[in-house]
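agent: user wants the structure for Putative membrane protein from Micromonospora pisi. delegating to structure tool.
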Amino acid sequence: MRERIRQWWNPGRLQQVGTRPDYRFSLANERTFLAWLRTGLALIAGGLAIAQFLPPLPLAHLREAIAVTLLLLGGAVALHAVDRWVRTERAIRLGTELPPSRFPALLALVVAVGALVLIAATLLRLGGNR
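agent: tool returned. relaying tokens verbatim.
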């Protein structure tokens, strides 16, 4: 794990692995990295928006729990982005299979569960206003 994290900070070392790929593959990998980073930033922005602008929900501290979850998830996505970029670039340079990842499925599951929690909180709030 330490070696993988070291590769995040030394891309020149990554260029010494394998052979130089077609630049289009490296640029596509970089665009994917940037897309993951945008996703992480969107989750962080959503967490901040919920913490600042969402009125209190019927369950105590639910708003804060959702905000903190989104902030943590955004940070995890950013870390995943750089790790995925390094592992994919290495696989491209070595001509091996791209590394598998369960992270997209995990992210989708967490977002779906979060949506269900917000739906339930909204329905509770609407029921309490009657």
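agent: one observation worth passing along. The radius of gyration is 19 Å.
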